[in-house]
């Protein structure tokens, strides 16, 4: 199964561009599902006006489709999207071209998890669990040294089980953190260069906003 993270951003664009982001997300999710792909909205940042988004992050995987379908779908969106429409907010505004940036990240290529970067420590569990819960160091704290991310697992009275849980949760937390860093970096880059990217639209949509 292939997985990709998609980020849609309005960059430094005006309110109309934040409306474009919201519309792109709607279209993208509809098209993906029609092609048998699984798509989920992970997070979004709302704009100042109703029905607008400053940015959105989506998770896309093959679902019932295949990797070729996913690659073709991403190829049709990755880059700058140009939306041609009259401004819904400024009736007499002459400008009719609005832009949003779409960036794609391959989850498996971007995330580099190495268990060698993890430091595990045992400690005494706290809270409910019986008379003996604090007498043995069954809880496990894991620290991902490069990022400083920490996770504490104390679900079980078995230190071995808590170690496994700790590693699983730490990996998931690291993946989420790593993707946030990549998305933030990409958004900063697109904002810096959006003036240049406007001449290279990967898709042009003409429809009311």
Question: How does this model look, in words?
Answer:
The chain has 209 residues and is of the alpha+beta class. The protein has 2 domains: 131 residues, Alpha-Beta Plaits; 59 residues, Double Stranded RNA Binding Domain. It is built from 4 helices and 9 strands. The strands form 2 sheets. The protein has a 6-stranded mixed β-sheet, sandwiched between helices. A 3-stranded antiparallel β-sheet has the order 6-7-8. The longest helix has 39 residues.
Map the helices and strands.
Elements: E1 3-9, H1 15-34, E2 38-46, E3 53-61, H2 67-75, E4 79-84, E5 97-106, H3 107-110, E6 118-123, E7 139-144, E8 149-153, H4 159-197, E9 201-206
Parallel strand pairs: 4-9
Antiparallel strand pairs: 1-3, 1-5, 2-3, 4-5, 6-7, 7-8
Features:
alpha+beta, 3-stranded antiparallel sheet, Double Stranded RNA Binding Domain, 2 domains, 6-stranded mixed sheet, Alpha-Beta Plaits, 4 helices, 34% helix, 209 residues
Radius of gyration, whole Å: 22 Å
Count of DSSP strands = 9
Please give the count of helices: 4
Looking at CATH, which topology of the largest domain would you report? Alpha-Beta Plaits
Estimated structural class = alpha+beta
Helix content, binned percent:
25-40%
SSE order? EHEEHEEHEEEHE
Main sheet: strands, sense, barrel = 6 strands, mixed
Give a short summary of the structure:
With 209 residues, this protein is of the alpha+beta class.
């Amino acid at each position: 199964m292939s997985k990709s993270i998609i980020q849609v951003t309005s960059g430094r664009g005006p309110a109309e561009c934040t409306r474009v982001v919201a519309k792109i997300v709607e279209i993208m999710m509809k098209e993906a599902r029609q092609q048998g792909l699984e798509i989920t909205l992970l997070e979004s940042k709302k704009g100042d006006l109703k029905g607008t988004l400053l940015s959105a992050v989506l998770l896309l995987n093959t679902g019932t489709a295949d990797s070729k379908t996913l690659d073709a779908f991403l190829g049709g969106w990755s880059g700058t999207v140009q939306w041609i429409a009259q401004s819904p907010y400024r009736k007499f505004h002459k400008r009719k071209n609005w832009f949003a940036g779409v960036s794609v990240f391959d989850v498996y290529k971007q995330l580099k998890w190495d268990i060698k970067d993890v430091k595990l420590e045992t400690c005494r569990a706290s809270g409910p669990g019986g008379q003996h819960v604090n007498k043995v160091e069954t809880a496990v704290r894991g620290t991902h040294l490069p990022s400083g991310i920490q996770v504490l697992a104390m679900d079980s009275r078995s230190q071995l089980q808590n170690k496994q849980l700790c590693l699983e949760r730490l990996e998931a937390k690291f993946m989420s953190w790593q993707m946030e860093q990549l998305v933030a970096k990409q958004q900063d880059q697109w904002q810096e260069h959006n003036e240049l990217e406007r001449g290279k639209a990967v898709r042009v949509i003409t429809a009311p906003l």
